[in-house]
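[worker-b] picked up task from shared queue
[worker-b] task type: protein-ligand structure
[worker-b] ligand name resolved to guanosine-5'-triphosphate; SMILES cross-checked against name lookup, match
[worker-b] sequence length check passed
[worker-b] input payload:
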Amino acid sequence: MQSSRLDLRSERPKRSLWQRIVDLALTDARTLDQGIDAACIEGLERTLLESDFGVPATMELVAELERAAERGRVATEGDLRSLLAGRVRDMLEAGGAEVAELSRPAEGPGIALILGVNGTGKTTTAGKLAWRFIQRGETVLLAATDTFRAAAQEQLRQWARRTGADFVGGREGGDPAAVAFDAVEAAFHRGVDRLLIDTAGRLHTQRNLMDELRKIDRVVARQHPGAPHERMLVVDATSGQNVLSQASEFGTALELTGLVVAKFDSSARAGTIVSVARELDLPVRYLGVGERPEDLELFETDRYLEKIFS
Ligand SMILES: Nc1nc2c(ncn2[C@@H]2O[C@H](COP(=O)(O)OP(=O)(O)OP(=O)(O)O)[C@@H](O)[C@H]2O)c(=O)[nH]1
Ligand SMILES: [Mg+2]
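[worker-b] inference finished, payload out:
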């Protein structure tokens, strides 16, 4: 008994979300043309919740399916797929439909703050973004504002070396906002195309993280009106529904412009993205899909739908 349960669990991630939905809907006794029964709906609910679609999105998808089934509109696997994929697309596009790289003004560097709770993948994302832009022929300056951890500075410095970006760091224990100030000056002085400002995920002092991030933001804005041009929140795909509270906390402190969903490669919970886009008015802009410089993808709805519905 015990072992068969374990087996079930270990098999789960190998089947795609879509495969699991099809298995539920197409088991012999309840084929789609006979309508979708309560057991199927229940199974679908559970599958979507386990994949972190969250309660509101799950309820909406299931209600939609029930309505369509009542009207006899879900007769084939193709009908089921296009119904669910269509609703998921609407939810994703509610957070902004366009596929967009980090913006950059006509004049001067594009300045982006990289934000998020500790360990989500901020520094890695900053490094991967640097790589992405450098590959396209742009010049990038990476700034490390986490002055409380020498290792944090060193980690970003290594990304700079690895990608060919410039680097600005700060004195250990120094003011993070002062590093941001120096970085903006250096970005203009050196005439780089992009400045990516990495921030701390947790403070090692009594100061409040949000106050500190607001201060960094203010300092950058004062130096250069219109900047920062992007405030990207990095969330960890494996943290499920916690992402929602993180986004609302950061979103209250600062006007976020988009999300990076990191560690998407290590998460079977593909629904996080849908629940975030549905609940928050924030577009998912990039997916982190590994630890190498090239493991960052621009988020594209079609590609995502293909990934989860095939
Ligand atoms: N598999 C995978 N691992 C990732 C990805 N992004 C980051 N990581 C790993 O996650 C861990 C934490 O990444 P960091 O970039 O240091 O996270 P951080 O948000 O800067 O952490 P703090 O600065 O301590 O708050 C590292 O081991 C990274 O290699 C990703 O997209 N996929
Ligand atoms: Mg970091």
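[worker-b] attaching auto-annotations
[worker-b] The pocket of magnesium ion (ligand 2) is lined by residues 122-123, 152 (CB under 6 Å).
[worker-b] releasing lock
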